[in-house]
């Protein structure tokens, strides 16, 4: 099966979050299941620079389409400098504001994806198009109105909170027929909804965990789209994300001063010392908690600030790496100033430092209010950095709570809490501190987490099954 994937980012070429990790890791995993993936990306400077064996396969008014390879990835880049050769990240200007023409930029990407998938370039026609998130959400709509034999599509929803909603004045610029601007189409509360369009037109829909698939079908979790999601529930499959276990491996990770495996957990102490040094932390009797996250309301970062007195009172220390809401950044910088040696903060993102934190911290806090899947807790499991998570979405699906039965059976891998409040998080932090004091119980959780199968191999088989179902439905 030949699949064209279309996304706005892809690790290791361009990354702002977990979407990039998934887009970058899936092709190799799917190859083992008879699926050959070519990935279409915007022609950001970093993507164009990485492209090898490049050849032009077509052109559109906005630019050229160039095929090539980057490492193990088969790529097509949409080389449109006016749209994608810009400073800042893929979506925002250097000052943090969204690019005002994001709707046109990603509509063009989706339109190009449909053209490539249907064989209107030098590449042969594809069997299926796989669109990721709102930035590619219009691609199934363009396919629905494309001439010639139909190419089926699958939409992956990585986070329903980001929907790509724009005013109705955009519609004439999209090049879709007038009939597409309807409730059973791209229209959404009087405007244009990119993700809504994908949810309506895609043959199959994948969410990144089974629990999230159930949550978004409710008024509380559906963010205005729950009615459409319930109407299409027989076409929706929840598949938990995997991670690249070669990139994320404590046995080979070059970012760690001391590498280790499940049998040499004591070596993590060297990495903990390195984390302490990086964040200006002193020793302490309790766990070293890590936060590696966007600093946003969704991620529950404000709850950590509220629970901080309990964390410190239990002998814990905190190392935080992230960027986001200015008020939250300021709150944690103030906490670090008020608690020198016990709270350390680095504003920004550093890939190597994040690896070190998972390899040296005792626990990682993930108190998200909603979490489609989450990769942070998976990295924690892989590195023996015990996850403390809210019981929502993919966090509920991937972390086994350290209740009495799970501890006795030796299968507990972390700590879950609910409801998602500061007091519940504080209670979970106290549980973590108590378990940390029981060295045998803590090491048992670390080992159970490190034994978990977090690779893409089994997940990729589920993706391949959805792809084949979409092709059968679209035949």
From TrEMBL:
Top EC class of this enzyme: transferase
Xref: Pfam families: Glyco_transf_5, Glycos_transf_1
Q: Name one GO cellular component term.
A: cytosol
InterPro entries linked to this entry: Glyco_trans_1 (IPR001296), GS/SS (IPR011835), Starch_synth_cat_dom (IPR013534)
Annotated ranges, domain Glycosyl transferase family: 286-430
- Recorded coiled-coil stretches: none
Q: Which GO terms describe its biological process?
A: glycogen biosynthetic process
- Determine if Nucleotide-binding is one of this entry's keywords: no
E.C. no: 2.4.1.21
According to the entry, every stretch annotated as the Starch synthase catalytic domain falls at 2-230
Binding of ADP-alpha-D-glucose: at which residues? 15
Xref: HAMAP family = Glycogen_synth
Q: Which family does it belong to?
A: Belongs to the glycosyltransferase 1 family. Bacterial/plant glycogen synthase subfamily.
UniProt-recorded name of the protein = Glycogen synthase
Recorded source organism is: Elioraea tepida
């Amino acid at each position: 099966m030949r699949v064209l994937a279309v996304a706005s980012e892809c690790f290791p070429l361009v990354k702002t979050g977990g979407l990039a990790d998934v887009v970058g890791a899936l092709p190799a995993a799917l190859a083992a299941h008879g699926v050959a993936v070519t990935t279409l990306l915007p022609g950001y400077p970093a993507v164009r620079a990485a492209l090898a064996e490049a050849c032009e396969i077509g052109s559109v008014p906005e630019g050229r389409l160039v095929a090539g390879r980057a490492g193990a990835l088969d790529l097509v880049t949409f080389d449109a400098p006016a749209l994608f050769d810009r400073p800042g990240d893929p979506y925002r200007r250097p000052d943090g504001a969204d690019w005002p023409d994001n709707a046109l930029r990603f509509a063009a990407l989706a339109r190009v994806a449909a053209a490539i998938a249907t064989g209107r370039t030098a590449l042969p026609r594809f069997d299926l198009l796989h669109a990721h998130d709102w930035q590619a959400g219009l691609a199934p709509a363009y396919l629905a109105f494309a001439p010639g034999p139909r190419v089926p599509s699958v939409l992956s929803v990585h986070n329903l909170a980001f929907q790509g909603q724009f005013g109705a004045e955009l519609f004439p610029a999209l090049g879709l027929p007038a009939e597409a601007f309807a409730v059973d189409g791209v229209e959404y509360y009087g405007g244009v909804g990119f993700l809504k369009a994908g949810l309506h037109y895609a043959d199959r829909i994948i969410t990144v965990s089974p629990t999230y698939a159930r949550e978004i079908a409710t008024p509380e979790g559906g963010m205005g789209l729950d009615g459409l999601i319930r109407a299409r529930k027989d076409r929706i499959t929840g598949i938990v994300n995997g991670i690249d276990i070669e990139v994320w491996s404590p046995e080979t990770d070059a970012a760690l001063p001391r590498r280790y495996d499940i049998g040499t957990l004591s070596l993590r102490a060297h990495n903990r010392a390195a984390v302490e040094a990086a964040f200006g932390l002193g020793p302490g009797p309790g766990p070293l908690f890590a936060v590696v996250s966007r600093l946003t309301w969704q991620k529950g970062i404000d709850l950590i600030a509220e629970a901080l007195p309990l964390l410190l009172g239990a002998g814990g220390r905190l190392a935080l790496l992230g960027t986001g809401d200015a008020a939250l950044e300021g709150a944690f910088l103030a906490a670090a100033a008020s608690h020198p040696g016990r709270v350390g903060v680095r504003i920004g993102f550093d890939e190597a430092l994040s690896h070190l934190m998972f390899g040296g911290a005792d626990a990682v806090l993930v108190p998200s209010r909603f979490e489609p899947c989450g990769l942070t807790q998976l990295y924690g499991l892989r590195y023996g950095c015990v996850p403390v998570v809210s019981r929502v979405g993919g966090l509920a699906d991937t972390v086994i709570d350290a209740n009495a039965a799970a501890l006795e059976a030796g299968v507990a891998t972390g700590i879950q809490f609910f409801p998602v409040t500061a007091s519940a998080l504080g209670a979970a932090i106290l549980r973590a501190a108590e378990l940390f004091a029981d060295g045998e119980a803590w090491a048992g959780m670390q080992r159970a987490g490190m034994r978990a199968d977090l690779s893409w191999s089994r997940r990729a088989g589920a993706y391949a099954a959805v792809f084949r179902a979409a092709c059968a439905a679209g035949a």
